[in-house]
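Slack export, channel: ligand-projects

TW: morning all. Re-posting the request from yesterday since it got buried. We need the structure predicted with the small molecule present, not the apo form. The ligand is copper (II) ion; the SMILES is in the block with the sequence. No rush, but it would help planning for next week.
GE: picking it up
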Amino acid sequence: MKIKSDRYRKILIVLIPVFIAGFVFAAYYTFFIGINTRLEGKNELKIPEILEDLNPDPQIAEFKLETRYSQMEFIEGKMTSTLGYNGSYLGPVIRFDKNQDVSIEVENNLNEPTTLHWHGLEVDGENDGGPMQGIGSGEAWNAKFTVNQPAATLWYHPHLTGLVADQVYYGLAGLIYIDDEFSDSLSIPKDYGIDDIPIVVQDRSFKSDGSFDYNVSMMGVDKGDQILVNGTSDPYFMVKREKIRLRILNGSNAQNFNFVLSNGAEFMMIASDGGFLENPLEKEAIFLSPGERAEIVVDFSEFNDKSVKLTSNDDLILEFVIDGELEKSPDIPEELVEVSEIPDDEVLNTRIFELQSMGISGTINGKYYDMDRIDERVTLNATEYWVVRNAGGMMATGHPFHVHGTQFQVVSRNGEKPPPEESGYKDTVYVDVGEELVLKVRFKKEGLFMYHCHILEHEDRGMMGQFVVE
Ligand SMILES: [Cu+2]
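GE: finished. pasting the full token output, ligand included:
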């Protein structure tokens, strides 16, 4: 009997390690080699850091940003010279709470001047960061404002006429999130970097040595041969089988995107430039011109596929690798927030803005930007209608029209009620050739502001005007 059990023991001593080794190998293969084979040549999506608030008082926020020269490995084994805020490419996400008093110091470590504009933020002209608030090389600028608008996804980027397109192309841009009591309490994904994901989309071209190949001709700007998301080339992102919120910014200089999912599935659009829509919208595609944002929620628990891609006109933007168990995520509420109408009982003025372009340059009302000329004078807290027309031109193109210092509402697009995705607050709208939009605007802050085309090469060449709110 003892001899027999000794033999079993010897067999077991041999078999157990074999089983363990087999199991470890199978697990390793499934989780690492398998995924790596599938994602060969792909890079995990970079998630920007959240900028540290240097003031412990929740009522007051203090931030510090600095521009710098840097390098980044977009293409394996090759370094690309870049610009960044506090890092190598792009900048951190800045989070503000509604009603917070904010102070931000911006230090410019470049050998050329820059400015920093808070795109979509309702602040007075002095703190808007437009072309007037230049920050010389080695200098710093301090912006101070109180956040006084609803939760939204905004962004920041340079705005010094003539240098904007170049500085953004090389990496100067970042996201701003405003949080408020509604965004904090709504039943929507809000775990940053886990189920609430920033998605900054930019087209870029590279030379064989890895450097950026930024080419502008008289005809216009060529589409980049690669699309970066948060500065990641060929990105993938691992998601669980749950609802994921994507805060998408078209951060490109000149390219439009029409985002769809590769499996044709619908998603919910919950917010536009200026914040939440009243009700979530079921969409199969979302169009964003440069500067525009949309927040969408994709329900990955509904997909059986292992991989679903975000694409635009057959360009791959981002691959989602679906992994793990089905997670129960709450339903998105059918009513998100109440979007209040800009009152239009006393409309003081109607202004017309006619956009015209010739290849790479363009005008508004036949004029190029002149720093020493005030184009419009607007009364503080007055409601106005702004009629924006794209009159075409030679090699005509659509133009994203952006207004500083306010969030406006779209009254009509070509004489019709705007599509539901334009029912919320906006700061940038796409105006295609021959189109006419009517916007309802109201300015709550005083100072000097810009309106312009958000194709950055057009803006740099003067497709911009300035107005005073007084
Ligand atoms: Cu334009």
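GE: first-pass observations. The chain has four domains: 1-28, 60-185, 196-326, 347-469. Residues 357, 362, 399, 453, 455, 458, 463 surround copper (II) ion (CB under 6 Å).
TW: perfect, thank you
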